[in-house]
Amino acid sequence: MIKHLLLVFFIFLVKLNGSTVSLIISEDLINNYLDTVGEYKYYSKKDKSEWIVQNPHVKIQNDEIIFFSKVIYRKDLVNIKKDVKRNLKVKYDLDKNNVKLVFQNSIIYMERRGKRLGMLNLKDLYEPKLIFNGPNLKTKSFKINLIKKRKVFINPNFAEIILKEKSIELVLNISFKDKR
User: Considering Cα of 123, then 126, then 129, then 133, what sign does the dihedral take?
Assistant: First the structure.
């Protein structure tokens, strides 16, 4: 009974919103996640260098997502600090129902006097973890037991990504298909 009431409420809500379901991922949510992950430290046995990524955070503004951090490179007597600023892109996979934040340019090079000392790929550190569940529905169909039994299918049509001030909104357009 409760399932049917929730379903009726959902259909009513979808009709009011013009057949869309949306998900909002806030800048604060992403930054809380990055705070929880904390700073990244890597020691390379191969060249005996140390990499540290400090204070990773994002800002969502003016239709773009920007990743910020401070990267420190240490090897022998060399100690280089670099403020990093990289653009992120939002991708939604309708089949897998997930939202990914993807680096557009993820490689950090450390140089001293024109000589490249090392590189770090932020994509390897953060991209596999910057994945969020999408708004797709778990229920693909429901049955209506009226005069004639009917099965109604819920079909996701397309998704639209909208960057707003301090948030990412993913709007999923859905339709209903009656199968008797």
Answer: negative
